[in-house]
Amino acid sequence: SLLSLEDPYYRFNDVAYRWISLDNWTYSRTFKTPFDIKKWQKVNLVFEGVDTVAQILLNNVTLGRTDNMFNRYSFDITSVIQEVNFVEVRFLSAISYAAEQSRCHKGHSIPPVCPPPVQKGECHVNFIRKEQCSFSWDWGPSFPTQGIWKDVRIEAYNHYHLIYFSTTPLFVKSTQQWCLEVESIFDVVSSKPIAGLVTVNIPKLQTQQTFSVKLQPGEGSIVQLVNINKSATVEPWWPNGHGKQTGYNMTTTFTMEAGCQIEKFSKVYFRTVELVQEPIPGSPGLSFYFKINGRPIFIKGSNWIPADSFQDRVTYDTLRLLLKSAADANMNALRVWGGGVYEQDEFYDICDEIGIMIWQDFMFACALYPTDQNYLESVRAEVSHQVRRLKSHPSIILWSGNNENEAAIASNWFSIPYPDIGVYIEDYVTLYVKNIREIVLCEDKSRPFVVSSPTNGLESVKEGWLSRDPYDTHYGDTHFYDYSNDCWNWTMYPKTRFASEYGFQSWPSFSTIEKVSSPEDWSCTSNFSLHRQHHEGGNIQMLQEIGRHFKLPQCPDPVKQFKDMIYLTQVMQAQCIKTETEFYRFSQSEIINGEGHTMGALYWQLNDIWQAPSWASLEDGLQSPRNHYFLSSLKDAVGLEKTQLSASVSQQDDIYIFALQTTAIAPFVTLDVGSIKGRFSDNGFLMTEKKKMVAFYPWEPTSVEELESSLILTSLLDVV
């Protein structure tokens, strides 16, 4: 029987549909083998991603079990496959598995046990290798999914088979020459070594080299060092805003004596990355900044969370539009945050193409984790797989072991009694240093690794991998949130070396909320408004922050008051993030009282996982070539008159032009075209002239008529 469900994001469905996560589900199907089984020495059933705990059966034979969403699983089915087959994936509820793992854990407890009640989430997520925010977060719902979230395929081969293939560029300073490390990992079926040739060809760089190789039986790797032709000019890969993202087509051909040839097509990029941590004149501590191709780069961007609670809904187009929006807003970097997922291949491909640098966390966040043998083996396989899968991408400039777990121990978030802290420090070093770091350094010598974020970098290493204060502005990176002080007052912000997280909440636009709610929900105090707010006291904090500089909405109509409140939270968020970001930008070139040389600003967060209050900025990006400074709070401003705002829309090729007119100065003019997807060239701006042109870049087909009828124009003077 088919299950008919509403949109899981509609109203209170995150709670109404929780039973689905508590049940065990089995996926099964019958399939015909599309080849002659007898012709192949080895046949594998490969799962690129299983979410998460399952038993896999083929023709009623158990092939094995899965327990890690981030791992790739390959099962040998040579002796099991038939002409017609029945495959089953029997899932176990992630919630019950996590609870059981926690219950069976011997020795000390592994906090936190459960998320705060305001998150309406599930417990023991740190006991399962699964997207950590799928059990809930302070900006997202609890949808502990179970299913096959990536491709499944059958591989059949004779002699040998290529499993992983990667390229790493290296610049040799002594000879001023680029070379390329080409690594291939094979499964060799034959019982004897296989000899043959590998030819690497990069036509644009007039580079071709052939190597004799011998593949040993079983799984193993070969590495070739390709010297790039000295007479060829190599154009390096640069971040967005610093140059081109030149890539070169490369063909690698494996011709083995056994008679079977493999041809591998790939794109290679040339760039170097260094994380510089060295003394700064006039300042205690160390610098913390990135050099790309020898050039110091100010990292400016945001943090990335999963684009949906259901990964199969995240399409190439979704990713391209979100990432393109970031590049169009002049960002050059994103941090893939450690409570989500290692993103899909296409995500990194797009970042390579448009010059978005990636700070890549491993998937551990805001918790302590077990270190028993089974758990560590699973993590080791995960890390090895992800590094092999991703290390060829020039966009990835850093591996980071976890999100905020050094801080969790240093600031004792979980109230661990002081005599017991040693065992947790030992666990921490075991997991992130002796296992994760060791594998990363072995698999990838081409980019830096930090153990946590925030961290004091080399100072944390010196203090035994855990610093006394990971938020120290003189070292490493910091995360900073403050909801109780005035965000227009830039003196409250830390003059840090690198701001890798900071931000303020806002509500998404009314047109976004409207799709997942009903009219009775449209008020500041409705059950829905409280249900969607997963950050304790968040709605009150937003109103307090608004009240410092703006008049709070007083409209007797609750729906109008709700819309005004939403609008003001967005204005407030934009102003707060603008102030803080500008502070980090101008701290780049100064040292005051021993603090400064800020070389990175990544605000929290770029995108939303669902329609709820969060720290996200996309939906509208605030981007303007001019800057305005308000000499007073706008609630105290004199001379602001009621204004008539109007707009007409015309079309130019694929772009729509909104011609705006105003009769008086209009602060924070916002354009909203409802559910029509696209991007405005400017939004949330101060309109000081009578006329202004704003371009709209649609992400789907639309028309002048549709845009005109959908347009809602709002300025601060519309709030009553």
Automatic annotation (TrEMBL):
GO terms of biological process kind: carbohydrate metabolic process; glycoprotein catabolic process
Enzyme Commission (EC) number: 3.2.1.25
Catalytic reaction list: Hydrolysis of terminal, non-reducing beta-D-mannose residues in beta-D-mannosides
Limits of the Beta-mannosidase Ig-fold domain: 640-718
Domain named Glycoside hydrolase family 2 catalytic: residues: 290-448
Keywords per UniProt: Disulfide bond, Glycoprotein, Glycosidase, Hydrolase, Lysosome, Signal
Keyword Amino-acid biosynthesis: no
Principal EC category: hydrolase
Matches recorded under InterPro entries: Beta-gal/glucu_dom_sf, Beta-mannosidase-like_N2, Beta-mannosidase_GH2, Beta-mannosidase_Ig, Galactose-bd-like_sf, GH, Glyco_hydro_2_cat, Ig-like_fold
Family matches, as Gene3D superfamilies: Galactose-binding domain-like, Glycosidases, Immunoglobulins
UniProt cross-references to SUPFAM superfamilies, sorted A to Z: (Trans)glycosidases, beta-Galactosidase/glucuronidase domain, Galactose-binding domain-like
Subunit: Monomer.
Entry similarity comment: Belongs to the glycosyl hydrolase 2 family.
Designated name of the protein: Beta-mannosidase
Organism of this sequence: Serinus canaria
The organism's taxonomic lineage, starting at the top: Eukaryota, Metazoa, Chordata, Craniata, Vertebrata
